């Protein structure tokens, strides 16, 4: 029987029928937040089964008259296959399948692979055997003892290595299907999880890695990033949203966390005295719609909020996305397309309506950016090397990994160093490296020496410090190029020929999905087929974020992978020879017209 659940629920709500027992039996959320899709289906079916829709004035043929059954407002018959799977079974209700695949040593395939990804388990065949897992590390903060535990997991359960991701988390690979329960247990034992790290989830919540000890920060937002993450993980409706969703917290300090590439960014601002009726103080400016793979940065909504209100506002935004995201076309299902369809003002009004419905008095405040104090200058090298903290006599040490890769020995060693010389505090960054916090002046040399003995560098002026790469064809079936291998070759090739006085960020991504955000790199490489059909890249230059915001421009391509080192040697050499004294690569390329790029950089 086909039922429009919204209409059936409306019948009940507008009658004298006491629906409290119905709501209770369906595990409903508090009334101000409204009924979930599952609750609406339950109530509508119960009304028809008991023939109560007739008594309530809907007519004998109400079920047929009302129209098709819907899932979050979309007719079930119009759902794409992924949404149909989520409609038929909630993504949190597949634990028995996970157990069965573990016990049968069976990889998840097809739509089950899609569902497993909501639990952080990815079938990456044929690129690589076994599962890949991506972790959830709220605010990108780890304890040293957790890092030691992850080293053991990488060695005993995964393939003997791990990678820091561009969302300040970890990925591990080559996990046999019969070890996924052991993986879950080991992660829970050290207080971590992989749940909600893939597919249609609000991904790892990022925060500025220097939160709490940044000399320039306006406010430490880390605890709000953690609260948002836990709110999502413990709210059933917020799993299985229309597509992936990224949220970021920026303390407006020394290091960028690329908030403007997120669906929602909270940027700390200091509001000065103004004529708009807003009290001076520290707030968060709200940004919407970043998705650089679709060539869009997050834009200012014209709204600010109190930092402590960001968790509730995040839930309200996600609930608007739940109800209005496209569930028929995966290519148009991101939050950006809700904004494109309805406009920023409409979306902001809907978010405020949700907040009003929660009943806690949270308000988003209209305020132009003219009232904001200027942001302190972002230091592009500050995520690598030794830097003084806000706390006198203490330092953080930023480690430049080779494309985010760590061995179990390096993971355990970094954890021990954080315990021995720091305060057991490790931060992961969106630049695929990590920081160790709270190292006393007297211990810096020893800590650096032990890091270097593990094969890790703290050199900020190297090509390795600015190299970012997605997994690539080595382990991703979507990729068109072997980005990890090519990036390593590029770093070695360029470092042997040039000595930098300021970093050049080179971002390699294997496909247009732009997991490594090639559009914001000084040099961006995106995998494509070369003219002879081999692996290759299109080369872009001049991308940036935050104060340097701008999409990289096309320079040349496709260039075969075997030739990419020589092409980039020419690009960097022409920059070094043609620049003004101390001019950065970004400033040099931004000073060139499109028509001049090839002439100046490839001559």
TrEMBL record:
Keyword Metal-binding: yes
Cited Gene3D superfamilies: Sulfite Reductase Hemoprotein, domain 1, Sulfite Reductase Hemoprotein,Domain 2
InterPro entries: Cbl_synth_CobG-like (IPR012798), NIR_SIR_4Fe-4S (IPR051329), NiRdtase/SiRdtase_haem-b_fer (IPR005117), Nit/Sulf_reduc_fer-like_dom_sf (IPR036136), NO2/SO3_Rdtase_4Fe4S_dom (IPR006067), NO2/SO3_Rdtase_4Fe4S_sf (IPR045854), NO2/SO3_Rdtase_FeS/sirohaem_BS (IPR006066)
Keyword terms, alphabetized: 4Fe-4S, Heme, Iron, Iron-sulfur, Metal-binding, Oxidoreductase
Nitrite/Sulfite reductase ferredoxin-like domain span: 129-187, 387-453
SUPFAM superfamilies assigned: Nitrite and sulphite reductase 4Fe-4S domain-like, Nitrite/Sulfite reductase N-terminal domain-like
Pfam families on file: NIR_SIR, NIR_SIR_ferr
Domain Nitrite/sulphite reductase 4Fe-4S: 199-355, 479-580
Magnesium among keywords: no
Family: Belongs to the nitrite and sulfite reductase 4Fe-4S domain family.
Protein name: NirA family protein
Source organism of the structure: Marinomonas sargassi
Taxonomy of the source species: Bacteria, Pseudomonadati, Pseudomonadota, Gammaproteobacteria, Oceanospirillales
């Amino acid at each position: 029987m086909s039922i429009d659940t919204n209409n059936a629920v409306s019948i009940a709500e507008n009658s004298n029928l006491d629906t409290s027992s119905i709501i209770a039996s369906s595990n409903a959320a508090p009334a101000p937040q409204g009924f979930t899709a599952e609750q609406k289906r339950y109530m509508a079916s119960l009304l028809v089964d008991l023939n109560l829709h007739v008594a309530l004035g809907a007519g004998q043929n109400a079920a047929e008259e009302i129209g098709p059954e819907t899932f979050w407002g979309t007719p079930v018959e119009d759902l794409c296959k992924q949404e149909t799977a989520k409609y038929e079974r909630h993504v949190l209700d597949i634990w028995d399948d996970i157990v069965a695949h573990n016990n049968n040593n069976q990889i998840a395939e097809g739509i089950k692979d899609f569902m497993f990804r909501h639990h952080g388990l990815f079938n990456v065949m044929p690129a690589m055997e076994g599962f890949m897992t991506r972790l959830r590390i709220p605010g990108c903060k780890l304890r040293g003892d957790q890092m030691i535990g992850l080293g053991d997991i990488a060695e005993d359960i995964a393939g003997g290595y791990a990678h820091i991701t561009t969302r300040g988390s970890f990925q591990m690979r080559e996990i046999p299907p019969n070890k996924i329960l052991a993986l879950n247990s080991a992660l829970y034992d050290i207080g971590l999880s992989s749940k909600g790290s893939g597919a249609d989830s609000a991904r790892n919540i990022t925060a500025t890695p220097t939160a709490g000890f940044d000399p320039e920060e306006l406010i430490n937002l880390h605890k709000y990033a953690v609260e948002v993450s836990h709110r999502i993980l413990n709210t059933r409706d917020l799993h299985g949203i229309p597509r992936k969703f990224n949220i970021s917290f920026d303390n407006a300090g020394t290091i960028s966390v690329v908030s403007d590439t997120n669906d929602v960014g909270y940027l700390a601002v200091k509001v000065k005295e103004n004529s708009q009726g807003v009290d001076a103080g520290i707030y968060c400016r709200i940004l919407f719609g970043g998705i650089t793979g679709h060539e869009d940065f997050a834009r200012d909504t014209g709204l600010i909020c109190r930092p402590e209100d960001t968790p509730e506002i995040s839930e309200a935004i996600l609930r608007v996305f739940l109800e209005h995201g496209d569930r028929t076309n995966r290519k148009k299902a991101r939050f950006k397309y809700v904004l494109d369809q309805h406009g920023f003002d409409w979306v902001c009004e809907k978010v405020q309506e949700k907040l009003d419905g929660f009943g806690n008095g949270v308000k988003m405040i209209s305020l132009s950016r003219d009232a904001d104090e200027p942001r302190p200058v972002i230091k592009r090298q500050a995520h690598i090397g030794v830097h003084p903290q806000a706390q006198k006599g203490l330092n953080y040490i930023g480690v430049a990994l080779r494309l985010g890769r760590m061995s179990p020995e390096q993971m355990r060693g970094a954890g021990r160093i954080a315990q021995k010389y720091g305060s057991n505090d490790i931060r992961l960054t969106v630049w695929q490296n990590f920081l160790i916090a709270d190292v006393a002046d007297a211990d810096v040399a020893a800590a650096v020496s032990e890091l270097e003995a593990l094969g890790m560098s703290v050199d900020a002026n190297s090509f390795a410090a600015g190299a970012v790469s997605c997994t690539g064809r080595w382990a991703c079936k979507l990729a068109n190029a072997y980005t990890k291998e090519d990036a390593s070759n590029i770093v070695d090739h360029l470092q042997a020929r040039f000595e930098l006085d300021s970093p050049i960020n080179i971002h390699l991504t294997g496909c247009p999905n732009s997991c490594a955000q090639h559009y914001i790199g000084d040099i961006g490489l995106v995998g494509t087929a070369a003219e002879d059909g081999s692996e290759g890249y299109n080369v872009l230059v001049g991308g940036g974020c935050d104060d340097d915001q701008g999409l990289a421009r096309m320079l040349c391509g496709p260039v075969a992978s075997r030739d990419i080192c020589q092409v980039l040697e020419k690009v960097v050499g022409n920059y070094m020879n043609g620049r003004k004294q101390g001019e950065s690569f970004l400033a040099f390329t931004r000073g060139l017209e499109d028509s001049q790029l090839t002439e100046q950089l490839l001559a």
